[in-house]
Amino acid sequence: MDTLLPPSRLQLAGPLRWALPVTLVLLFLAVLLWLPWQARQMESNERQEQLIADTLWVEQAIRFELDRNAESLENLGAEIAVGGIEPAAVQARLDQMRKVARELTRVAWLDEAGQVRASSGTPVATTPASREAALLAHQTGNGRYSRPASAGGAGAQMDYHLPITRDGFHAGSLVVSYDLDALLDETVPWWFAQDNAVALLDADDKVVARRESAGPGRGVYTHNRPLDLNGAELLLATNSVKAAPRLLPNLLVGSVVLLALGLLASLAALWRDVTRRLAAEGALRQQMAFRTAMENSMVTGLRARDLEGRITYVNPAFCRMVGLTEAELVGRAPPMPYWAPEVIGEYQQRFAEVLSGNVTPQFETVFQRADGQRIPVLIFEAPLIGADGQHTGWMGSILDISERKHAEELHRQQQEKLQASSRLATMGEISSMLAHELNQPLAAISSYTSGALNMLSGDGGKPVDADTLRPALEQAGLQAQRAGQIIRSVHQFVKKRDPVRQLVEIPAVIEGVRELMELQARRFYVAVQIHADPALPPVRADRMMLEQVLLNLTRNGVEAMQDIAPERRILRIEARAANGRVEVSVIDNGHGIPDDVNARLYSPFFTTKAEGMGMGLSICRTAIEFHGGTLNHRPNPGGGTVFTFSLPAEVGVA
């Protein structure tokens, strides 16, 4: 049975029935209107971002060109300053510069009086800005660019002045003049100029140079990038000739096409665009990385080898290093002509590891130059990956470390001298205590021997029993041994010898300088407590250097407690094994170390003592690091400081 709706409900049914379809249509139309607008905005943003990225690239190209010319001038100026080049050779170099850099209108060499010694190019009028830049360059001793200015009705000119100094005095200058229009023509790529108008503005926003291959820009997409040069403030301004994206001319037709093909076409276009962009970015990134590596490695030898070990590339620095030409090296297979005969076995072993893919990333070896000279080198080896991601060989960076080796040897000798001086200074500080300490056994020996003589020459001429004399003579002998032990400790501590690494027991090291430590401690009434595990594993070290470290640390701890209460003057020396290392701690209850001293505590020549040289802790840290260990300090919770040095333990050695 049908249910009849009242008239009021029938009147409402019509509008409600169309509400949902109308709403959906409105939403659909809104989406259709929004999508083209959104697409237009995205395209506009993408064009702006692309313009910014391309502008940055152009800026880098201009800077690279200016820096390259400045570097050439600096090299030429250095040769002129030392008198190592003739004027004719200077003229040839200037001509070559202009031939390579077409944006240069003139390159000139001026003497100290400002007279032209050599010049290449068309003479141009000197502007006030150029004279001002020349004066500032002479005053500062650094190269300086002039503000852009028009010279003789021609285009804008910018000069670069590089002063030449000899023995601290002005010896002339090198001057190059840039045609800014030509600079843009040479550095701005054609593909960028076809889509954008490029201009250089001075500090007053005045156009001094422009390149408009495709006409003036439309002002829709613009970007400015400052070129802050020393003396010249230029602004690189780019203005795209492209107009803003337009909406579809027929929105209804476009909506139908969008409904039918929009999703597929947009996905295909997006995929193609992303793929092309990623490929272009990858190629550009690889090219820039290679150029940067080459430019930054001009003093580093580079050598590329294929998977069979054959040399495929060497740079000039490597050729100079081994004294061979590129033609003599490229294509060569092992054995190489720069291999030294005495390490030929090492070379062959490393070459076999390279072929097997097991490469040592960094190692030191020796090369032999063509004249027979040996040079120590540091080699960094890394896989060489091609553009397709395939492993194509190995790239090696080689550094000549002859000077570093020489400096390390000088540093080692200097450290040995400082250590010897430190030991002598330590002995000088405790000389008075040493005299007092030796006086006691010597006085005891004298007393015992005098008593024995008195007994031998006693009244009545009665014979003296040997048992009566034995205690006195034994005591005299013990005191003589004690004095001899003190003298031997001092002799062993101060004598000079080369460091000798051997297996050393830490408890024996502590016992070896115990007499000297206690001698220092008695001066300030300090009690010395030693806690060393007798089962500690040995360490491989130079015993004398460890004794010096212990004596320096204990002396610092004793002196840090001279102003505290007598009952707290306790110096503890603890030795234990932890994590495969042997740790030795010197713990005092002194005044501690202030925060402002912590950062410089181990710096050479820094000291808080009135009579100190500031080398004790620096020498201690150097000695411990020489053995592959560490020296650190921390506050003592009960007051004072805990100095701890740790050394690698010799595992498995009885």
From TrEMBL:
Catalyzed reactions: ATP + protein L-histidine = ADP + protein N-phospho-L-histidine
Key words, A-Z: ATP-binding, Kinase, Membrane, Nucleotide-binding, Phosphoprotein, Transferase, Transmembrane, Transmembrane helix, Two-component regulatory system
Membrane-crossing segments per the record: 18-37, 251-271
Q: Which residues form the PAC domain?
A: 361-413
Q: Where is the PAS domain?
A: 286-358
As recorded in UniProt, its EC number(s) are: 2.7.13.3
Q: Where is the Histidine kinase domain?
A: 433-651
What is the protein's given name? Answer: histidine kinase
From what superkingdom does this record's organism come?
Bacteria
Q: Does the keyword Nucleotide-binding apply?
A: yes
> What SMART domains does the database record attribute to this sequence?
HATPase_c, HisKA, PAC, PAS
Q: What class of enzyme is it?
A: transferase
